[in-house]
Amino acid sequence: MARTQAERKSETRARLIDAAADLFARKGFHGVSAEAVADAADRTTGALYSHFGGKEGLLLALLEVWKERTVGQLAGALSRAPDPGTHFAAMWQSITRPAEDRGDAWLLLEVELWLYGARDPLVGARLAERYAEIRAELGEGLADWAAATGTVLPRSPEETGGLVLGALLGCAMQYRLEPRAMPQQLIIDGLSGLLGLSTRGAEP
Amino acid sequence: MARTQAERKSETRARLIDAAADLFARKGFHGVSAEAVADAADRTTGALYSHFGGKEGLLLALLEVWKERTVGQLAGALSRAPDPGTHFAAMWQSITRPAEDRGDAWLLLEVELWLYGARDPLVGARLAERYAEIRAELGEGLADWAAATGTVLPRSPEETGGLVLGALLGCAMQYRLEPRAMPQQLIIDGLSGLLGLSTRGAEP
DNA sequence: GTCTATATTTCGATAGAC
DNA sequence: GTCTATCGAAATATAGAC
Fold first, then answer.
1. Average pLDDT for runs of 10 along chain B of length 204
2. What is the CATH number of the domain that holds A180?
3. Is there a domain that residue A51 lies in?
4. Is residue B185 in a domain?
């Protein structure tokens, strides 16, 4: 066990970032003390300051991990999408299912980071890059599907991705406050309408 | 000047709520001290606690004002809407124009309150009511237009309102980080698609 | 590299004068 | 109803031991 040093270091880093993701989502960045984050990670504020220089440095590190993680899992989900309908359903469920491991924590952290980014230019620039990547991934996935099935999409992939992402985000926020107001079928129909597909009705 | 008492009281209330709306939007609820709010309102923490019992009571009062104000101005905008396209354009501009008086402060406060409501059941319930009202107003306005022009909307007014509100909110959040990614024409086209109107292209 | 202990500041909230 | 003064609690950040 000669590499205990580096192991311990990177594990502490990971533990602190995970704890920050959880607590920032549940209580908000300003609603959590650096000590509370360190406690949740079974470390102390000394370690936190040694690694990240402070609470804000921890948030910046979290932002990078968050960026890679979301874009990566999105790309994975897209690669095995038979059609937009089931694709949208899968995305919607991944956003709205409440508990399991983390569940609606994703949405809370997403909005928390957006709010931080809207107030802080540096974080805002990072977030803008991340959203652009998501729009691109999302739009390309749908464009691939369209090309494979001979469907004609009315907009460019990036534009399509932006509209879909926007609708998903805004609808998820409403769903979080009142789930009954946003049934899954409504989301799927609406997103299909955004693509120019008139997949409404479909009564037996 | 016999009613100086009541005047001073209600003016202090209004000043504190206005200052709270501004500061909560710019810095976030937890990012602002009660003293900072009182200072911005040219009052002291004593007055704040006398009126609202604390910072959280001030937020609840702000929420009520916010609720009435937004629904009211929305209803006003709807009553004079010639068609969905110009209607959407007007709504989009009212969300995205940057300064003037308050401008993107609306979006920041909206999201700040949402985040608070997602974490606090009491505030969440109030917010849910507000969103339901907005969905209803929005959907009814569009349904009226459809009835007047003989257009058939594929969904109920509430469902339509929910999709439109969601798309507007999510797109506005992306716009705030990167305006170029969300041009107005894209929003109008997308929302039209949500309604089942195929208003795409329209090349000369 | 991490922990304990602490210095310094700031916050929320209250008591009492006016 | 509002202001001044202030108390106790909690937060950030650091210094030094291990």
1. 65 96 97 97 97 97 90 72 85 79 84 98 96 94 91 96 97 98 97 80 40
2. 1.10.357.10
3. no
4. yes
E strand segments, A92-155: none
Q: What is the Cα–Cα distance from A52 to A68, expressed in whole angstroms? A: 19
In a domain, B9, yes or no: no
Contacts of A200 in chain B (CB under 8 A): 154-155, 196
- Give the distance, in angstroms, between residue A44 CA and nucleotide D12 C1': 14
In order, the DSSP letters of A77-135 are HHHT-SSHHHHHHHHHHHHH---SSS-THHHHHHHHHHHHHHH-HHHHHHHHHHHHHHH
CA distance B187 to B77: 18
pLDDT tens figures, A125-153? 999 999 999 999 999 999 999 999 999 99
Which residue range is the domain that position A173 belongs to? 59-194
Chain A: closest CA distance from residue B4 (Å): 39
Residue of A nearest to B165 (CA): A170
Residue B76 forms part of a structural domain: yes
Count A/B contacts: CB-CB distance under 8 Å. Answer: 166
Number of independent structural domains in chain B? 1
Dihedral sign, Cα of residue A78, residue A135, residue B196, residue B135:
positive
What is the rounded CA–CA span in Å between residue B110 and residue B73?
A: 15
Q: Rounded to two decimals, what is the model's pTM? A: 0.94
